[in-house]
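Handoff note, outgoing to incoming analyst
You'll be picking up this chain. Sequence as last confirmed:
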Amino acid sequence: MMKKLLEILNKKYHTHEDVIYLLSENDAEKRTIIQNFSQNIAEKANYDYHNSELKINISNYCKADCLFCNLRNGNNKINRFRLNREDIIKKALELHKNGCDSILIHSGYDDFYNTDRIAYIIYSIKQNAKVKITLSFGLRELNEYKEWKIAGADSYYLNMITQNNELYSSTNSWNSFENRVKHITELKKLGYNVGSGSIIGLPNQSFSDLAEDILFLKNLNLNYIDFCHLNSNNGISEIIDTPEFIKRGIEVAQILSSNAKVRLNDLIN
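Most recent structure output, in case you need it:
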């Protein structure tokens, strides 16, 4: 059986069954081999500036009501905030002054930050600091991505949530899965460094579901993959709890997407 594991690990192209096997294997010795194999790939993967990225949360207002997200519109238990343009620019320049060369600007679905406001923020930062700028605002209009790229944005992160239709519907996510994939494709055409991921740990998510997500993300040919997690269930079996499920997902995704950095993050939109 060890031979089978090594054959799968060294494949160039993996089947759905291969990925399920890597995710579901419970033998301690084999799990160590899978983990070490994944770590070796991660160490050899091309360095990208997202490794040293610092995040500026500019708003936690959100018109969406995604059930998995703490920022959802219906959550009245959090204090809402919104930074103004000058405060965002000032904070970015302070981060750069302190040695940061990569900044992620993130918010919920907040219409206050329209095309021009975001473009102004990007341009102002770029004019005063040699820094990479990644945006994470969820699904926006295609013309907005273009304007922000012209203003100087380098990268965009857009989570695909999950390719499983039933699971996707259960999350009440903003817009459709198909549009998310379409926007990822358009972002790549515009010249963005593009990242995506899925949510690991959704209620009723199976090894098969996660395997499909991992394969789908690989085929998108992304610059980087950032998964986010949801610790809402008690585990998918009596043997595997949610943290272990998440850990295995990251490891196996890195094995398949050997040219992209694979990480765990909190970028849900």
